[in-house]
Amino acid sequence: MSNAAIYFHADSFDTSRERLMGRHSAGESFLRGFLRHAQVDELWLYDALNVGAAKGEAMLKGVEPPRQVRRWIGERSLRQLAQPGCLYYPAADIPAQAWRRQPLGDASYSLCGVTHTTASAGTMDILANMAVAPVQPWDGLITTSRAVRTSVETQIQAMRDYLGSRLGAARFPSPQIATIPLGVNVQDFARTDENRRAWRERLDIPQDAIVVLYVGRLHMAAKMNPALMAMALEAAAKRTGKPIYWVVSGWGHTDAYTETHHRWTTELCPSVHYRPVDGRPADTRFSIWSVADIFISFSDNIQETFGLTPVEAMAAGLPSVVTDWDGYRDTVRHGLDGFRIRTFAPRPGLGGDLAYYHANGWLAYERYLVSAAQMTSIDHVAATDALVDLIENPDLRARMGAAAAEQARQVFDWSRIIPQYQAFWGDLAERRQAAAGQATSGVNPYRMDPFTLFESYPTEALTARTRVAASPGMTWEIAEARLSSGLATIGDWPRPPLAEMHEAFDHLTESGATVGSILEYFPAHRRNFVERGLLWMAKFQVIDLTPNGGPIVD
Question: 36, 38, 307, 453: which sits with the fewest CB atoms below 10 Å from its CB?
Answer without folding.
Answer: 453
